Amino acid sequence: MRQYYYLVAGLPDISMDDSKLQLSYTTFMEELLRAFPGRDADLLRLFRLDYDNDNLLAWINNKEAEFHPLGVISPEELKEQTELLDYDERAPLRGIPTYFLTFMREWKSELLEAGKEKKRLTELYYEYVMQVSNVFVREWFEFELNLNNILTALNCRKYNLPVAGQIIGNNAVAESLKISTVRDFNVSGLFSKMDNLLNLADEENLLEREKMIDRIKWDYLDEHSVKYYFSVEVLLTFLIKLKSLERWLSLDPKAGEENFRSLVSSLRNSVNMPADAHIK
Fold first, then answer.
1. Could you say which of 125, 149, 157, 211 is the most buried, measured as most Cβ atoms within 10 Å of its Cβ?
2. What is the pLDDT, as a whole number, of residue 279?
3. How far apart are CA 245 and CA 99, in angstroms?
4. Helices vs. strands in the chain: H and E counts, helices first
5. 6 lies in some domain
């Protein structure tokens, strides 16, 4: 296992209480790109795929859409890959993950349900990243998936929306969320942070709620990275925290409320609920 003594030793201390960044997420990502060889570079690539996902979703709606710079796949590559979809022996192009092909074939064949393109791509994304051999990275993505699913289920319950159709994947947590009606969806034994999520479900201050969610993520990372020292896992832990902190510092009360309302609106639209239903 490759060790990164210099990089790890040079990491600045960061905490949830920081009011400014000593290092930007983009700058640190670029530093890792220069430092990581082979397999570690492949792991880092997994943490850029969410940007490629957003770029792909933007591109299928607008071929002139501006791409996020941390994505790897270009508009030209998406165009070329689309043109090659009918020729399996020539797909995928180098650098394009296999789940992109599945999504793009479904999109080109008009098999995607309107309004659920993002959900379908997210399903394929998590199936893909959770096959990685690195235990820390695989378990992080599963934790992230479970966390997002539980938050979605709690929001659906709060606003009297059906849960099952909003849940991503089919692991034990996902299946329990789809069918259970008890307070904890019967996942407390499967997800160690469930009590924390239940406590924040009634938090009316949306910025405080977001910070509580980030705290759950940081606590998980602290607990699961403690056995690593100068390895890639330490650097990826810092990268995830840095992204979280950068996002947190960019929020303001108005933006937080708008983001939350947008989330609830998207849940309603996906199940054809009336737009005038009350949001507290």
1. 149
2. 39
3. 29
4. 13, 0
5. no
- Amino acid sitting at position 189: G
Q: Residue 143 domain-assigned?
A: yes
Residue segments in the chain with a per-residue pLDDT below the cut of 50 = 256-257, 260, 263-264, 267, 271-280
Residue 240: partners with Cβ closer than 8 Å, 6 or more residues away: 47, 140, 217, 221
Measure Cα distances from 206 to 56, 140, 254, 255 in Å: 29, 25, 9, 10
| pLDDT for the residue 85 | 83
Q: Is 206 within 8 Å of 260 (Cβ atoms)? A: yes
Integer Cα distance of 197 and 215 in angstroms: 11
- Report whether 152 contacts 166 (CB < 8 A): yes
Residue 18 lies in a domain: no
Judge if 106 and 240 occupy the same domain. no
| The length of the chain, given as a count of residues | 280
> 93-113: string of b/e by CB count within 10 Å (b at 16+)?
eeebbebbbbbbebbeeeebe
One domain for residues 109 and 159: no
| pLDDT the model gives residue 84 | 87
Clarify whether residues 98 and 163 are in a common domain: no
Determine the pLDDT at residue 191.
Answer: 96
**Same domain (yes/no): 39, 92:** yes
pLDDT at residue 262, rounded to an integer: 55
Single pTM value for the model: 0.87
Cα 237-239-241 angle, rounded to 5 deg: 70
In a domain, 12, yes or no: no
Q: State which residues form the domain around 79.
A: 23-129
